[in-house]
Structure formats: C-alpha cells, structure tokens
Design goal:
4-stranded antiparallel sheet
Length: 190
C-alpha cells in the first residue's frame, strides 16, 4: 500500500484519495471499468438539450451530485438560433478540461504546487466537408486542434512541461480525439 500520510492534499486535489484509488485499482482491476452516459433531446431546428446524471463505476451504478443540463445549438450564421455552443465547441471545452484536471492531478502526485493554469483551445473546420461540397477531400471534423497552456507553480519550466505532457499521455479526451474510437449507432423508430 502507498502511504497517504506522506502526501497531503495539494492543488485542491485530495492526494491521499488519489493514491488510495491507484492502490485499489492495482489490487482489483475490475473497479476501473466505467461507463458514462448522456441523453439528448431535440428541441427545434439545430437546438438540442443533453443531460448527464448517472454513470457506472467502481462496479456499481452511481449518480452525480446533481444533474447537468447542456444546451447545444448553432449560431445564426449556421442556420441556428444560438441557444448554446455548437457540439464541436463542446469538444474544445472537453479537451481543455480533461488536460487541466490531469495537470492538477499529476502536479499534486509529484508534489508540485500550482498557482495558475489557463488554456486557450482553437479548432479549425472547413464547412465544405459538413455541407458535402468538398468532393470527398475535406473532412467533416476539425482539421487541427491547438491547445496552449499557461502554467505557473513552484517548479522549473522542464518540470511543468513534463506535468503537461504526462497529462496529455493520460487524457481520455485527447485519446478519443487523436485515435479512432468505434462508434455504434442504433436507430429505433416509432
């Protein structure tokens, strides 16, 4: 067992629980299997609403502390009513949030106190692909996503860069975006 008394909470991360979780998963790999879920309902036009509340993890059904509701839409220039960000914009938030939480966890595990972590994320899309006007040569999704971090803490530049790199290597969202993920679509009609 890893001693948690030597690792105080750091960067808002419950470091003792982080290491206890690592030890528990090492001892029983089955508890690492999770399934996250979202449900989405069309509102009108390009506007839809998603909710997330329940998930499976640590070998049991679980609930978040509160249900999260997300609004999706397109801006007016893309035939929407701008009731929320586009789905592809949520991907930018997801990669930023996943990497940022990883940075906090990795820094805490390595004993580094962070004082500031901010990022900007940009993604380039050519609508010729989505609109079917690219003659098959233009992809529908992002051509490139760029994430720029500004990180401050009580470590040197090399250490801080290493923390960001370790976060990238362990990021689930980065992995999903950078590697093909099988997607199964089932349709039920009334």
């Amino acid at each position: 067992m890893t001693s948690t008394t030597e690792r105080p909470a750091r960067n808002g991360v419950d470091t003792p629980t982080l290491f206890a979780t690592l030890d528990a998963v090492k001892g029983q790999n089955e508890i690492a299997k999770f399934q996250f879920r979202a449900s989405n309902t069309w509102v009108t036009g390009t506007h839809s609403r998603s909710t997330a509340s329940g998930f499976y993890g640590a070998m049991q059904e679980m609930q978040h502390n509160s249900e999260t509701v997300l609004e999706f839409d397109h801006p007016q220039v893309l035939v929407g009513t701008d009731h929320g960000p586009t789905p592809v914009e949520y991907l930018l938030h997801a990669i930023a949030a996943c990497l940022t939480s990883g940075i906090a966890n990795v820094a805490a595990a390595r004993g580094v106190d962070l004082t500031k972590v901010t990022s900007t994320v940009e993604g380039d899309i050519d609508l010729l692909g989505i609109l079917g006007l690219g003659s098959g040569s233009v992809r529908n999704g992002y051509e490139q996503i760029r994430v720029k971090f500004y990180v401050e803490g009580d470590a040197d530049e090399e250490t801080l860069r290493g923390i960001v790199e370790q976060s990238r290597r362990r990021s689930a969202v980065y992995d999903v975006l950078a590697n093909p993920t099988p997607i199964v679509i089932d349709v039920v009609t009334a």
